[in-house]
Specification:
The protein is built from no helices and nine strands. By secondary structure, it is mostly beta strands. A five-stranded antiparallel beta sheet has the order 6-3-2-1-7, with no helix packed on it. A two-stranded antiparallel sheet has the order 4-5. The chain has a two-stranded antiparallel sheet with strand order 8-9.
Length: about 110
């Protein structure tokens, strides 16, 4: 279980698979599985039975994809980039874009 390089809310680019080239926002990260759920990517059809509050039918939803198949898009230079981790003098850590050096954490 390695630590993920993406966090919830990051904009990412899909590198491989049926949705290669698509961009989306990370809805949730699953570090135990090494996967992320990206908005509008890896859409699957879920068949549901009728329940009290849910109508029966076929619903589309996002399925998790492996985190090594996505790359973070830097908000300042608008390019997909690897991440470097900086350690400040006070010991705090933040993620930064390798291309422009801009911080990704707010």
């Amino acid at each position: 279980m390695a630590k993920l390089h993406v966090k919830k809310g990051d904009k990412v680019l899909v590198l491989s698979g049926k949705d290669k080239g698509k961009e989306g926002k990370v809805i949730s990260a699953l570090p135990a599985e090494g996967k992320v759920i990206v908005e509008g990517v890896n859409i699957v059809k879920k068949h549901t039975r009728a329940q009290q509050r849910v109508q029966a039918g076929i619903h589309e939803q996002e399925a998790p994809i492996y985190s090594d198949k996505v790359m973070v898009v830097c908000p300042s230079c608008k390019k997909a980039s690897r991440i470097k981790k900086n350690v400040a003098a006070d010991g705090s850590r933040n993620r930064a874009c390798r291309k422009c050096g801009e911080s990704l954490d707010k």
